[in-house]
Fold this protein.
Amino acid sequence: MSKPSVLFVCVHNAGRSQMAAGWLRHLAGDAVEVRSAGSAPADQINPAAVEAMAEVGIDITDQRPKILEPSTVQNSDVIVTMGCGDACPYYPGKRYEDWKLDDPAGKGVEAVRPIRDEIKNRIEKLLADLLPAR
């Protein structure tokens, strides 16, 4: 069996989806293929998201916002949308989840920490479902 692939999608691919991808890479290692994209990517990752993740030992400074391509959705097993579900193409047979999370755009690190922590909780649940034997 090949490893599962997870795609995180938010509008700017600069905050929530980048933090989710960072958590999944950190917690799953090489057991899951991790992707992220945005329907309208920003120029750079949200600095408060970078700082909040650095506080828990996860470096996302090497990531860049990417445009959501239909092929990326098609090649993913699980698609997690975060506030832009309408922009994400739908393919039968894929698992879709929509996570309602506050948008960290324009917020300081104090406001981003609870979002980061909520994302971690959701990633842990997703991982337990994807890799139950871990």
The longest strand covers residues 5-10.
